[in-house]
Specification:
This protein is mostly helical and 109 residues long. Helix content is 54%, strand content 0%. The protein has two helices and no strands. Helix 1 packs antiparallel against helix 2. It is elongated, with a radius of gyration of 27 Å.
Length: 109
């Protein structure tokens, strides 16, 4: 792999990773905000986290745009965060076996 390809791969991974991190953290921060009962300390912490992850994502995208001569990395596309949802499957059940008396006569065919 050439140095340009190595740089392409690194910048692309950085850009995609930071964009995914920023997108994935937002729903979790919203849940925290919704359950913080208006606590100003929590609101400040959430704002700081949002600012940091947003800056990381925009800086990585800016890095991609700043080195067009050295890299051919395409602009990152939108990233949909993975949200863990509760399964909606019906779990199987096993019926209890019929219990017979120890001295019962086995059936014959």
């Amino acid at each position: 792999m050439s140095q340009a390809q190595d740089l392409d791969s690194a910048v692309q991974a950085l850009t995609i990773g930071f964009a995914a991190l920023d997108a994935a953290i937002q729903p979790a921060l919203q849940v925290i905000a919704d359950n913080s009962s208006g606590n100003p300390t929590i609101a400040t912490a959430i704002a700081n986290i949002q600012a940091i992850t947003g800056k990381m994502a925009s800086d990585a995208a800016a890095l991609t745009a700043a080195v067009p001569g050295a890299t051919t990395v395409p602009a990152p596309g939108p990233v949909t965060p993975v949200v863990d949802a509760q399964p909606d499957a019906t779990l199987p059940s096993i019926d209890a076996p019929t219990i017979t008396a120890p001295d019962a006569t086995p059936p014959t065919s």
